[in-house]
Amino acid sequence: MSGVELRQLRTFEAVVRHGTVTGAANVLDQAPSSVSEQIRALERSLGVALFARTARGMRLTEQGEVLARWARGILDQVEQARREVTGRPQAVRLGALETIVATYVPKVLARLAERRPGVIVEVRAETSRDTLLADVTAGRLDAALLLDTGDALGDLGFPLPAAPLTFVDLDPVPLLLVAAPDHRLRGLRQPEPGDLAGEQLLVNVPNCSFRMAADKLLGPGPRRVQVGGVAVMRAWAEQGLGVALLPEFAVDAALRSGTLIDLGLVAPDLHLRLIWRADREDLPGLRDVLYAASA
């Protein structure tokens, strides 16, 4: 790729990730005009159009898809060479959903610090599971933390990209069905999903891990009321506006204070699952670092 500059590849990657020149410019701390010019220069150098410009943003062309696969490997090799020449410690780019960043990532970082001192972890919080999966697939992240269940990746019910992803389970994430203290099912020895027929089940958007778990466990009986994220579901449940299937870490304080009760429904744990591309394990030390994070 004669004439192609590394800064152009980094800019190309940023546009691919954010979908717009403006989004890439914000991340790179550059003017949008500078980002646009670098992309045009890259296209002139290669003699092909890398993006189709649309009203909704930048969409990769077929040639752009090919370059996206090569660009990540080239940038990885450059970064590895820089580390070896300068003696800088290894850096792992770890993504996670915001809820997990706040609750579980500190434990993972503590394990890494104990077992692989000197390793630098760059943590990026995301609101979308699909974005994390896409970034691991494209090599923009080395690994990501997701919530899942079962023996295979995606058993919770979310779609997977066409990439050789593998995983290790780190921690169980217990789920509790909670409600206000005066709920009619309080005191029932062990409620079954059928006991919730007609109840209001407080949920988030359809691709939320906790909603997907509730859908698998409870079936169609409870009436779904979409209210928002974990904090909103918890607050509505405290006010007696419905029941919610939530992670134990999110309702611990409310259970202790008595503003919520555990209805005692038996629910399988979710798994905190660390995923990465199996074909990237040859990056120096990556596999050791990933397994060092496990419990």
TrEMBL record:
It comes from the Bacteria. Pfam families: HTH_1 (PF00126), LysR_substrate (PF03466). Transmembrane segments: none annotated. One of its GO terms (molecular function) is DNA-binding transcription factor activity. Keywords: DNA-binding, Transcription, Transcription regulation. This is Transcriptional regulator. It comes from Planotetraspora phitsanulokensis. Residues 4-61 form the HTH lysR-type domain.
